[in-house]
Specification:
By secondary structure, this protein is mainly beta. It is built from two helices and 52 strands. A five-stranded mixed β-sheet has the order 37-44-43-39-41, with no helix packed on it. The protein has a five-stranded mixed β-sheet with strand order 45-52-51-50-49, with no helix packed on it. It is found in: Cell membrane; Cytoplasm. It comes from Paramormyrops kingsleyae. One of its GO terms (biological process) is cell morphogenesis.
Length: about 725
């Protein structure tokens, strides 16, 4: 009822007596007037009861008018909130209105004489009064953030933000932030919030005292009738930083090593650290002091945080039986410390902070540990002094020449120094070594041009073996630089060349080389030997190469020449050179002609292999058929007349007398590639072979018609075909 009374006090009944003045003239014209009335108000979220009267609009007329209302709240959203009595003009409210959606309802009031004639038209504005019906709302129910333990007090940890949807600029929409609680509550830090929503702290954060803080923040508005509020929780996780230095907690391991050993772990040092495990604030970093030769190294075991000391270079007992070191330890992350000195009622507290490298600017010094590593004596191998010797000698030294003496020493104090020298590497087996003295002498001639010599040097490697248990070996090298001598003659690079046949002179280049070096090599002097005048000459004949010129009188075919080639010292040799002259019009070069000839020869060879196989098959078939039926034997006349098996010929043959007797095992070679073979003759028209007779292979010949006698055989040559006449059967 109090709200209704307040509304009634605000609302008033507006009664308007509207007088319409009519101007006098020859005719009466009615003038319409319009006003805007804006003094109506409605409180949002009014609880009713509905409907309740809002106000009355009346117009004084001598005639009856009807009232109509249009606009927001009637026939526009929010619809059906307002209604007007058509006869009395009373406006009533039938529902709630939300200020956050509609600040003002604008309507049109009409007074009509009839349904179509508007008598009066008024604009009406109804203001919605805001009430405190919205509490401030945070963007998140829970805020989460992470901050480092080393954060300075007064720094912004997090900013929260809330919003109130009531009318801006009114007490209903303004609010304040407040921290309601902090869990856990520690003495080293105190959180506060500014009206901008910024959350910060006073004092020092300490990971060991609180790993997470939960801060409850309230936002409460300034409503006159009622104050509304909401809460949010801010979860602040603390990251551990390096506010504790590592300290040594002991060591394990032998702390000893044999001399000459390396890559061996001799001991482990252990440390403790109160910071969080496996963080940069916890991981240890070790440093070795007093190791001027960089013999040792130390690394951190990632699992245990131990420092592992390793001997990286071999130690020598004879130089020092022990090594003294100092190891310091710190963390990967720089040290940080914060301590509260005084708590103030207002403002920030007084704190003492230190940060940086241990031992500087107030930071505590790093912890150190003294270490002694003992070296145990063992049998040392012999050592050549120097390990490599270089000498220079001329090649072709006489056998038994003393080249050099390699000497080894024993660095041990407690072991003997008797050695046996032995050759480990001598590629050409050119030297020998005295097993007691290390003297190296030649057993073969040293040749600079040998494939064992690289860049004029020959390397011999020796072993010196002591008599320890087990015996140890030292290695030394002798590098022999060989000086060149003129012990090689120039030689042609190619001993066969091709030249083309032409009407004029043709030329080809020939080159020489010498295995010796300057001044025992080129440029060379070339000289043709023999009867070459008018046939061959050299132009030029001096240099690394020479040009061989063929005169036009030289015919096609192979030619053998001899040349003398001299080096710059006049040391020379006689060289053979095969020159093939061919017609290059049919093929680009002589090699192609030879290739064609080779292919023809291969084809002929194939025919020669296949033909006997075919003949053998025919003979076997004839033998098989002869077994079924006895056939008469044809008598052969052994007189001077012979039988000739006809064959196609290119030209008529030549009559040749045939001897009557032929030796059975006689074998001869006949010119033009005709070879004598034995063939087994069979009785004609079947039967077995009665005797074996020699036979000559047929070859074509390009020679003129001739007659050759070859023992009991006689060969007739024609222009195209060579005939071999056998005593019994003549094959063409």
């Amino acid at each position: 009822m109090r709200a209704f009374a307040r509304i009634s006090a605000v609302l008033f009944l507006l009664s308007l007596n509207v007088l319409v003045l009519e101007a006098s003239s020859n005719s009466h014209v009615r003038q319409k007037r319009a006003w805007i009335i804006d003094s109506f108000t409605i409180e949002e979220e009014h609880k009713g009861p509905f409907p309740y009267p809002l106000g009355n609009i009346s117009i004084q007329r001598d005639y009856v008018v009807h009232f109509i209302l249009h606009g927001k709240g009637v026939d526009e959203e929010p619809k059906n909130i307002l209604k007007i009595d058509q006869n009395t003009g009373l406006i009533s409210v039938h529902g709630k209105v939300d200020y956050e959606q509609y600040h003002v309802l604008k309507l049109t009031f009409e007074a009509r004489k009839s349904s179509s004639v508007v008598d009066t038209k008024l604009g009406v504005e109804i203001n919605i009064l805001d009430i405190n019906d919205h509490a401030p709302v945070f963007q998140k129910k829970v805020y989460e953030t992470t901050t480092e333990e080393s954060m300075t007090q007064g720094s912004n940890v997090l900013t929260v933000l809330a919003t109130d949807f009531d009318k801006p600029g009114t007490p209903n929409s303004t609010f304040q932030y407040k921290i309601l609680s902090v869990t856990p509550k520690t003495s080293n830090a105190e959180f506060f919030i500014e009206q901008s929503g910024k959350i910060s702290f006073k004092g020092c954060l300490d990971y060991e005292k609180a790993k997470t803080y939960n801060v409850v923040v309230e936002a409460k508005d300034n409503g006159e009738v009622v104050r509304l509020s909401s809460n949010t929780t801010v979860s602040i996780s603390i990251t551990d930083k390096n506010n504790h230095l590592p300290t040594f907690a002991g060591r394990t391991g032998p702390g000893r090593i044999n001399e000459r050993e390396s890559g061996v772990s001799v001991l482990r040092v252990h440390v403790t650290d109160k910071d969080s495990k496996n963080t940069p604030a916890w991981r240890a970093k070790y440093t070795i002091h007093g190791d001027k030769d960089n013999v040792f190294s130390i690394h951190t075991d990632p699992e245990t945080n131990d420092g592992v000391l390793v001997v990286e270079k071999p130690l020598d007992f004879e130089l020092a039986a022990s090594r003294n070191l100092t190891i310091s330890v710190e963390n990967e992350e720089p040290f940080f410390s914060c301590q509260v000195q005084k708590k103030a009622e207002t403002g920030l507290w007084e704190v003492l902070t230190t940060a940086g490298v241990p031992g500087q600017e107030g930071v505590p010094a790093a912890h150190t540990e003294a270490i002694t590593v003992f070296v145990d004596d063992v049998n040392d191998p012999p050592a050549f002094k120097p390990p490599v010797k270089i000498i220079m000698v001329e090649e072709n030294l006489e056998v038994g020449h003393l080249l050099e003496t390699l000497t080894a020493i024993d660095p041990d104090r407690t072991y003997n120094s008797e050695f046996v020298y032995k050759i480990e590497k001598d590629p050409g087996n050119w030297v020998t070594v005295n097993p007691k003295t290390g003297q190296i002498t030649t057993v073969k001639t040293l040749d600079r041009e040998s494939p064992y010599v690289v860049n004029n040097t020959y390397t011999v490697t020796l072993y010196a073996i002591d008599k320890g248990k087990p015996p140890l070996t030292g290695t030394g090298s002798l590098i022999i630089h060989l000086k060149d001598q003129n012990d090689n003659v120039p030689e042609l690079l190619q001993h066969a060349v091709d030249m083309c046949l032409s009407d004029g002179p043709t030329a080809v280049q020939i080159a020489a080389h010498d295995r010796d070096q300057d001044p025992f090599a080129g440029p060379y002097l070339f000289e043709l030997q023999g009867d070459v005048k008018g046939k061959w000459h050299l132009d030029p004949y001096h240099g690394e190469t020479a040009t061989l010129v063929r005169e036009k009188t030289v015919y096609a075919g192979p030619h053998e020449l001899q040349l003398k080639v001299y080096d710059t010292q006049g040391h020379g040799s006689l060289q053979n050179l095969s020159v093939t002259v061919c017609d290059c019009t049919t093929s680009p070069n002589c090699q192609m002609q030879r290739a064609v000839t080779s292919r023809v020869t291969n084809s002929a060879l194939g025919v020669m292999i296949i033909a006997p196989l075919v003949l053998l098959g025919v003979l076997l078939l004839a033998s098989f058929l002869s077994c079924k039926k006895e056939k008469p034997v044809m008598q052969v006349d052994h007189g001077t007349g012979e039988y000739l098996i006809t064959s196609n010929t290119e030209t008529p043959g030549t009559d040749c007398p045939i001897p009557n007797e032929v030796q059975k095992d006689q074998v001869e070679h006949i010119s033009n590639g005709v070879t004598l073979q034995k063939v087994q003759m069979s009785q004609q028209m079947g039967g077995t072979f009665s005797q074996q007779l020699p036979r000559k292979t047929l070859n074509r010949s390009m020679s003129s018609r001739s007659y050759m006698k070859a023992g009991p055989y006689q060969v007739c040559h024609t222009a195209e075909l060579q005939l071999v006449l056998l005593p019994h059967v003549i094959i063409i």
